[in-house]
Amino acid sequence: xxxxxxxxxxxxxxxxxxxxxxxxxxxxxxxxxxxxxxxxxxxxxxxxxxxxxxxxxxxxxxxxxxxxxxxxxxxxxxxxxxxxxxxxxxxxxxxxxxxxxxxxxxxxxxxxxxxxxxxxxxxxxxxxxxxxxxxxxxxxxxxxxxxxxxxxxxxxxxxxxxxxxxxxxxxxxxxxxxxxxxxxxxxxxxxxxxxxxxxxxxxxxxxx
Length: 208
Known about the structure:
Blueprint: E1 2-8, H1 13-16, H2 30-46, E2 54-57, H3 61-73, E3 78-80, H4 97-103, H5 126-141, E4 147-152, H6 154-164, E5 184-189, E6 196-203
Parallel strand pairs: 1-4, 2-3, 2-4
Antiparallel strand pairs: 1-5, 5-6
């Protein structure tokens, strides 16, 4: 059985400062660092004795810091992949959230949603994000490792799960799974039927 753990990075400075994240390279807060240690301990406890796991991560600082803690506990090193980054918010990145909120154009209730222009210069569309996240997961699953960890961001995690269940890209315009900081999502694929399941979505019990 293949087990893939999708980790959303814990609390970062842009959360506290109420700034737009995206590609803005914020770091973990002290609380986020504590939670990264809890995430690492939890993942280590899930692995069979004597096993390790591959660790993949977005290259942004908040995910990279998390992945370094996780990888150290699993006796490995993180593999950086820029395609696991959060959606870019273009000119809004690093600005106050209120700046983005005042300019954001929400997607329509019907019709084209993935290619929708949200009104922020330089921002990615959801299509842009989905295409690169789907590609990242495809590369990750080419490995024969039975245990893998992917450290990423909230919106990117939605498309990782969508790609895991083989949701067609053209159908992903409405999908949204709820992720919070520091959550662990557990995905399984069995060796017989090769069915893929979402065993746990955004588990945060380790942060209690």
